[in-house]
Design goal:
Helices cover 57% and strands 6% of the residues. With 133 residues, the protein is mainly α. The longest helix has 17 residues. It is flat. 5% of the residues are buried.
Length: 133
């Protein structure tokens, strides 16, 4: 009732306002945002720059939304006749296998061990499953 802008901007503006008030209210600067694939919130935070131009806020996509969006894209490929029928049939017959591969990749990424604080922050750890001599 008290919102004068468009309905699509409610979420983005609410999150941006929360980020702007985080230092004042909690003494915190948020450097990560778990999102649902909607880029309007990320775009709004880039416009507002709640902590200044040199503070980067990383968007992390929610696992459930990532898998849902991935499934939607696969369904689109299956329905699109510009792709060969053999590829479309393979995707159509194995949707669980494709989703499982993405889930395993996410699990693998989350289990990487970081050695330094910088690696934790920037995610620059290179993982080798075997020792290099």
């Amino acid at each position: 009732m008290n919102w004068s802008k468009g309905a699509t901007s409610i979420e983005a503006d609410a999150v941006a306002e929360g980020f702007k008030k985080s230092v004042e209210m909690h003494g915190l600067k948020y450097n990560k945002l778990i999102g649902d694939g909607d880029s309007s919130v990320t775009k709004r935070l880039q416009e507002v720059m709640p902590y200044g131009p040199n503070f980067f806020i990383q968007k992390i996509e929610c696992r459930n939304h990532l898998l849902r969006n991935y499934g939607t894209k696969l369904t689109g490929i299956v329905k699109n006749t510009k792709y060969p029928i053999s590829i479309r049939n393979h995707i159509k017959k194995n949707p669980v296998r494709f989703r499982s591969a993405i889930t395993k990749a996410m699990d693998y990424r989350s289990k990487l061990q970081y050695e330094t604080e910088e690696e934790k922050i920037f995610g620059k750890r290179i993982y080798f499953p075997y020792k290099i001599m």
